[in-house]
Amino acid sequence: MTIPAPAPLPDPSSAPRQAPLTASGEMRRAEILEAAATLFDELGFHRTTTAAIAERVGTAKATVYHYFRAKHDILYAIHDEWIDGLLALFDATTEATDDPVQIVRSVAHDIVALIDEKPGHVRVFFEYFRELPPELQKSAKVKRDRYEGLVEAAILQGMKDGVIAWQDPRTASFALFGMCNWAYQWYRPGGKLTHEEVSDQLFAIFLSGVGSRALLGRGADA
After folding, report:
1. Which among 2, 28, 159, 202 is least surrounded, fewest beta carbons within 10 Å?
2. Shared domain check, 115 and 85
3. Where in the sequence is the domain holding 34, given as residue range(s)?
4. What's the pTM?
5. CA 50 vs CA 55, 58, 131, 133, 215: distances in Å
6. What is the pLDDT of residues 136-160, one digit of tens each?
7. DSSP 8-state assignment for residue 191
8. How many distinct structural domains can be found in the chain?
9. Dist CA 68 CA 158 (whole Å)
10. What is the CATH number of the domain that holds 30?
């Protein structure tokens, strides 16, 4: 399978800069991100203060500012971690297989698995993107577009291989994202279905549609 060339990396001047951290520093930064994601989910971005984030972590407000210059930098970091996770999972999949159907199946699994693992982060990613300053939106969008392009390319390859029906690949990729991404609104860990079962069902619906063989056999006039 041919993967498109990487999109240009974000302008380093646009993204928040962070000096290398020690292991304990990485842990503290992760705690801040987790607390912030939870509070953004519970209270909303604007109602969450840096002081509230510090209190949730159990540290001083100055410590939060040591890792992040402003609240929108925390929001950017949550976006960045989410899309970096998806890109890394996609790379791991394409290293293991070049089967486009398996790649698309893994995309569905990866998205729902991250929704299961980090529900607060997911809501922040989808609902607060527009709260980022324009320069950070532009930087974050590069990676979003990169991931969408990779998935679209996998679907297109499936069409070329004859395993996915011919249609507009961009529309098909957005249909897949729409089904999987929207699961953050209704999927709850510990429910009737596991996240693996949910992603398998969403993938099956994407690949085959919801019409029965009997209905599909009746043709366009059905």
Report:
1. 2
2. yes
3. 25-68
4. 0.82
5. 9, 12, 16, 17, 56
6. 999 999 999 999 999 999 999 999 9
7. S
8. 2
9. 42
10. 1.10.10.60
